[in-house]
Design brief:
The complex is a heterodimer of chains A (578) and B (276). Chain A has 578 residues and is α/β, with parallel strands linked by helices. Chain A has 21 helices and 17 strands. In chain A, 41% of the residues lie in helices and 12% in strands. Chain B has 11 helices and 8 strands. Chain B has helices spanning 51-56, 83-96, 109-120, 144-150, 154-157, 159-170, 179-186, 194-204, 234-242, 257-260, 262-274, and strands at 4-10, 13-20, 37-40, 63-66, 102-107, 125-131, 219-225, 246-251. An 8-stranded mixed beta sheet of chain B has the order 1-2-4-3-5-6-7-8, with helices on both faces. The longest helix of chain B is centred in the N-terminal third of the chain and has 14 residues, at 83-96. Classes of the chains: A alpha/beta (578), B alpha/beta (276). The A-B interface holds A 181-183, 185-186, 192, 196-197, 200-202, 275, 277-279, 566-569, 573, 576-578 and B 1-2, 5-7, 9, 12, 14, 16, 72-79, 157-159, 186, 190-191, 195. Chain B: It comes from Nocardioides cavernaquae.
Amino acid sequence: MTSTKLAGLNQAGPNQTGPNRTSMASQAAPLDALLVEAARGPLRRFLPDSATAKWAVSMARQPGATVRRLRALGGEAGRIALGSSELAPDRRDRRFTDVAWSQNPLLKRLVQLYLAGGKTVEELLADADLTLTQRRRLQFQVENVLAAIAPSNIPLVNPESAKAVIDTAGLSLVRGGRQLVRDLASSPRIPEMVDTSGFKLGDNVAATPGAVVLRTEVLELIQYQPQTDEVREVPLMIVPPTINKFYAIDLSPERSLVEFSVRQGRQIFVISWRNPDARHADWDFDTYVRAILDALDAVEEITGSKQTVLGGICSGGILASITAAYLAGIGRQDRLAALCLAVTVIDNANAGTVSALVDRRGAELAKRLSRRKGYLDGNALAEIFAWLRPGDLIWNYWVNNYLLGKRPPAFDILFWNADTTRMTAGLHADFVDLAMENKLLRAGAVTVLGVPIDLKAVTVDAYVVAGIADHITPWENCYQSTQLFGGKTRFVLSTSGHIAALVNPPGNPKASFRTNDENPADAKAWLREAETHQGTWWTDVAAWLSARSGDLRPAPRELGTAVLPPLAEAPGTYVFDK
Amino acid sequence: MSDELLWITVMGQQVRVSIRRAVRASGDEPVAPTVPLVLCNGIGASLELLQPFVDEVDPAIEVVRFDVPGVGGSPLPKLPYNFAGLAWFLSRALDELGYDRFDVLGISWGGGLTQQIAFQHRRRCRRLVLVSTGTGSLMVPARPGVLAKMVTPRRYRDKEYAKQIAAELYGGRLRDEPGLAGALLHDQSRVGSRRGYLYQLLAGVGWSSLPALPLIRQRTLILAGTDDPIIPFVNARIIARLMPHATLHAYDDGHLGLVTLADELGPLVSRFVLAE
């Protein structure tokens, strides 16, 4: 959901670098860690600290091993100079695909030296006697430095760049330099990743027809125009993430989950959150849950249905779960037909790197920083995330934009990714606290609108979907939701990562998903017994929803009602707020 | 239904634009775009602020509003800009929207921008309306207490503060109804970043239209409030004196007269724009 959705997007960039791919799993950056990091800025992670000192001490303590590594590097360098070294870049490493990297003797040696040096540093790090936290931190720094000093990043040395200079009589470097200055001038200080000029909201993204039927200070509620003669009685209302805009589920036509669902004969309502500013610093769980309840009232008013399926995505899924538990707490769970959660982590235990990246002091500081500003800046989040994946998200575009002087690609997910939003300080603090203390696991540890929240009290059926390659909301954590609710839960594991799991239209031959009728306590056990199905989980959830959405009835002609008339065409007005 | 909102990208910069399509007096049928009226807003204000005025403009006139980069719903520009650069940027934006000729109305800070556009794009800019505006750094300034409150965007961020200073800052009707400032400045508005506001302030540094006014030959309507603490009324007189084809209309209100007195000024501006 966040800018982070790129985690699941390996196929997206123009020419990604390959080598970091495998180590990414250990570099997963769960949402809560990102929320803390983003408030504090990326610079902190680059500065040498006790971990660096510990590494140096560790190397000095075992001089034998260190000298052996360095001697090996020296030997390799000798072979490289003589031209007898076998060292070659990984075939998947897109940085060095140009033939000049292997044919030009100078460039070949340069790449080999780079690879040998990088390997040695990584070996030295592996040898060192470090704690997990220190190791992860140093890995982050080492990977960033190695990604930065790659010979492919150097103008004119990169053969593609040299050719572009000749082809354009140097204009490519002038253009690139100009883009560099522009990108560095303001946050996020990272290369531009997408050419936004080709996209028009409401035209070729967020284009499914519909209307805003409710506008409050906090949200706009969009009702989508039915595209079938008959629709299911029970509507589906989706709570999107509170970071970035809602249209991750309504990207280009034919890639839109909203459009797909409307065509399945479903009555779809989607919340479009206001992009809050400093004036809204106090908005917190209470505000957002209250807003979801307002929207739910409107859905019931418009459809006449006494029940609604509540859907939520990522941080929106957390809000939806809290809302469901709130309704259960006040004895009004009858208003819900079912709960649907996509890429949502409620149980943060063992979320891999959390403990390594975030400590309590850091979390407190993060909350203070966003409080001072009134909000958490979406651009800061984008920046943090980019530095966690420097090969794919920084240096790749460095070469494309600055060395080659080309415009970044146009791609709907990247367009959405760049459309960041702010998060109010109040909500930020609530999310950070929730994650740090894993509060939703204890009944009553969170109180919303005066009602203690107990997820076990939610007894409606739940559908939980996750992506196996998701680094933001690791699937094992998403899976834990099956143990939290009081009703029957269906867990579905899709191929792909965070956002690709959502944007999963039928027709992709590589797409598949796993299901398992049992939900053992251990995610690994679930996976072992799971059955794999070809195709997308979209069709699976469609069948699941249809079984819980009542009978068919004639589709309404008009959107809204006399009391709640259409206020604006979809995608509404809040989506246009930067 | 509200006016149409869209984003356009000009030279890599996204801008939020609102268009109220023109309709024939007889029905709701859209007409071929005639000359649209482009509104340039005051400093720190998002396009929503002008809604009461737009609602009073003759429906036969197409009205285009936008958020200056870094303000309201438009993202912060990468670099600071000046009026000349912004005028050029806007002409590109209007190209993008398919308008060849246009009328421009500017209020306060936007009035400076409007004068720059009229000067720089004399073929494309047909008529101009200057509201509560001056001639830039060479003008009769407001009192220091007023100016001090203008250098921060706090009134856009803090509703209570806005009410508290409304009378002193905006004058006119807001002296009797300071609560109105809260509604006007806050209920529908979008707030940009502090940096966006700073860029707007910087754009005006060292800029003055004074020497160029005699060269602005377009027909011009000047609207000025008799009780405007930010831009003292005498500035309107100076502009009217120096511009060869200007008419001055004084109204009995303050700096935000365009919206607080929209029922009177909307029709007045419409008549000026539609006149042969």
